[in-house]
Every structure is written in structure tokens, then in C-alpha cells.
Design goal:
By secondary structure, this protein is α+β, with helices and mostly antiparallel strands. Helices cover 35% and strands 15% of the residues. The chain has two domains: 74 residues, Ubiquitin-like (UB roll); 65 residues, [2Fe-2S]-binding domain (DNA polymerase, domain 1, Orthogonal Bundle), CATH 1.10.150.120. The protein has a five-stranded mixed β-sheet. The protein binds FE2/S2 (inorganic) cluster (FES) (2 copies). The site of one FE2/S2 (inorganic) cluster has 10 residues, from loops.
């Protein structure tokens, strides 16, 4: 059956099987390659998108669970050619190496700052525990997030 949802501000009706995940639909049907699949089981955070403003692992969500929701991926952040401030902070702090994990970290950071614009160091670390960076860019990632927390 068709499912209606909003992705990056566009209202869409998608006729896809119910067993497909939001991540599969975003990447394979909509061509949004920002959310990435690494673990596929909800432990690495590389597939993180915002669902009604909350960070979720899109590899764990079946498409019926996304019906009627507002989805934001990293592709939806740029406005009029301007990077989002979190994207810019990651660039300014060199907060990536291969960048495979970066969209997930950025979306998780946006969810954090939406909920809590002035997180403490402990709150930042706690909030980012679901995102893994295999390149070990954690000091630079923390510096980028810290720079926005003030
Ligand atoms: S791919 Fe979704 S959490 Fe790892
Ligand atoms: S920058 Fe390579 S996995 Fe994080």
C-alpha cells in the first residue's frame, strides 16, 4: 500500500513493500545517499536521520512506521547554498577523515541542540554515544559540537 511522508520538506506518496526500511527507501528509491548503512542493526549511528525532530536509526525503522512523519536527512539541511551551522562547525574543526560517519554525527548533533541548545560536556558525550567513528575523529567532533553549545 502507498505510504505518505514528508522528506526534506517534500510531501511524497511511496508505493513500496512494508518490509523495507526507511534507510532502504531513502537511499534506493529517493537517491538520498547521506544516510549510510554500516552495521544495519542500530548500533553505529551512520544511518541517523531526524524523524519529527528526533534522531533515529533509519536502518531500524520499517517504512510503515515513517508514514505521516516528517523526515529530515542531511541533504535537507542546506538552504540557498548555505551550509547548516553544524555542517560548518564540522568543517571548521576538521571533524572527519573519511567522512562516512559524518552525516550521522551531524544529524545527531542537530537533534541534541534542538532539545538542549546549551549542553554540558557530559550531555554532549552522552548524546553522541550512539554514533561511532572508525577513523577516531572523536576529539575534533567533540570540539565542533562544543563550539555550538555555548
Ligand atoms: S546502519 Fe543504522 S545504526 Fe548502523
Ligand atoms: S571520519 Fe571515518 S568513520 Fe568517522
Amino acid at each position: 500500500m502507498p505510504y505518505t511522508l514528508t522528506v526534506n520538506g517534500k510531501n511524497l506518496t511511496l508505493d513500496v513493500p512494508a518490509h523495507r526500511t526507511l534507510l532502504q527507501v531513502l537511499r534506493d528509491d529517493l537517491g538520498l545517499m547521506g544516510p549510510r548503512e554500516a552495521c544495519g542493526v542500530g548500533v553505529c549511528g551512520s544511518c541517523t536521520v531526524l524523524l519529527d525532530g528526533k534522531a533515529i536509526s533509519s536502518c531500524l525503522l520499517l517504512i510503515p512506521q515513517a508514514a505521516g512523519k516528517n523526515i529530515l536527512t542531511i541533504e535537507g539541511l542546506t538552504e540557498n547554498g548555505q551550509l547548516h551551522i553544524v555542517q560548518q562547525a564540522f568543517i571548521d574543526h576538521h571533524a572527519f577523515q573519511c567522512s562516512f560517519c559524518t552525516p550521522g554525527f551531524i544529524m545527531t548533533t542537530i537533534a541534541l541542540l534542538n532539545e538542549n541548545p546549551h549542553p554540558s560536556e557530559d550531555e554532549i558525550r552522552e548524546h553522541l554515544t550512539g554514533n561511532l567513528c572508525r577513523c577516531g575523529s572523536y576529539p575534533e567532533i567533540l570540539a565542533a559540537v562544543r563550539s555550538l553549545a555555548g
